[in-house]
């Protein structure tokens, strides 16, 4: 069942909203492409946000650590590319190639997917279990500026719990980052 735009916040236990978006690798990806994943991480991101830049390498580490255990991760850029040309699709392609992204980087041109997820900032993460039900929503960890000073790696902990078939002990944390740049 597809969760359509309802104006309601996506809550823990609800199904992942459907998407079907173009990616920087030249393919299109939909929610259905991840139906066999043990866990699906949906990360709203962009190119220009300093918070995103600080966490980019940590996302790559997470997929390296958990990819073979059943984690699928996708990144979605929903920013207005007219007002923020560094977030245009062509720039997304360049970034994904420069960073050797090992996960799909999707373009939400209409911003409908960000609205369906009720995303507000970049980066903002949503973690779904193997039934595509929301288990965790929030931040990657508590320190974007210094990976060595992270006191709590909330997203990593939640991924490990979901892959063990558990519900995360901490399902919600405050996401930190730049606001999504909405179209006028």
Secondary structure blueprint with pairings:
Blueprint: E1 20-22, E2 28-30, E3 39-45, H1 50-66, E4 71-77, H2 89-98, E5 105-107, H3 112-117, E6 121-122, E7 124-128, E8 134-138, H4 154-163, E9 178-179
Parallel strand pairs: 3-4, 4-5
Antiparallel strand pairs: 1-2, 3-7, 6-9, 7-8
List keywords for this structure.
about 180 residues, alpha/beta, Glutaredoxin, 5-stranded mixed β-sheet, 4 helices, 9 strands, about 25% helix, globular, disordered N terminus
Describe this structure in words.
- The chain has 184 residues and is of the alpha/beta class.
- It has one domain: Glutaredoxin.
- It is 23% helix and 20% strand.
- The protein has four helices and nine strands; from the N terminus they run βββαβαβαβββαβ.
- The chain has helices at 50-66, 89-98, 112-117, 154-163, and strands at residues 20-22, 28-30, 39-45, 71-77, 105-107, 121-122, 124-128, 134-138, 178-179.
- The strands form three sheets. It has a five-stranded mixed sheet with strand order 5-4-3-7-8. Strands 1-2 form a two-stranded antiparallel ribbon.
- Strand 4, helix 2 and strand 5 (105-107) form a beta-alpha-beta unit.
């Amino acid at each position: 069942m597809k969760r359509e735009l309802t104006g309601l916040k996506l809550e823990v236990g609800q199904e992942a909203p459907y998407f079907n978006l173009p990616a920087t690798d030249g393919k299109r990806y939909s929610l259905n492409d991840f139906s066999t994943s043990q866990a699906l991480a949906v990360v709203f991101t962009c190119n220009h946000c300093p918070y995103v830049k600080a966490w980019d390498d940590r996302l790559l580490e997470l997929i390296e650590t958990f990819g073979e255990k059943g984690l699928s991760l996708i990144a979605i850029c929903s920013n207005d590319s007219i007002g923020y040309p560094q977030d245009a699709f062509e720039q997304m392609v360049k970034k994904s190639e420069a960073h050797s992204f090992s996960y799909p980087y999707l373009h939400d041109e209409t911003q409908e997917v960000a609205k369906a997820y009720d995303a507000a900032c970049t980066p903002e993460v949503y973690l779904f279990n193997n039934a595509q039900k929301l288990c965790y929503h929030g931040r990657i960890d508590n320190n974007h500026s210094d990976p060595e000073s992270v006191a709590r790696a909330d997203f990593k902990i939640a991924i490990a719990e979901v892959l063990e078939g558990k519900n995360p002990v901490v399902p919600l944390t405050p996401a930190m980052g730049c606001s999504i740049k909405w179209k006028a």
